[in-house]
Amino acid sequence: MGLIGTLIVGLIVGALARFIMPGEQKMGWILTILLGIGGSFIAGFVGQALGWYQAGQGAGWIASVVGALVLLFAVNKFRGGTPPAQ
User: Lower Cβ count inside 10 Å, N or C end of the chain?
Assistant: First the structure.
């Protein structure tokens, strides 16, 4: 896919995860891209461990967004972010 494609997919996946996660996430474009790429790696790793994906096969869009949500949740807990208003 190439570097440009990876960055674009990372941006889309990271932006979707930030949109879905309640509360405010203070991060710029670069961290959003890294969030999306990291979510894709997490989804691919877990999918391979569970037998959903073969070695070298990339994760799907939904799995990548779920992986990014997990990563965003972990980052918010690590930073000590405020919980969403109830």
Answer: C
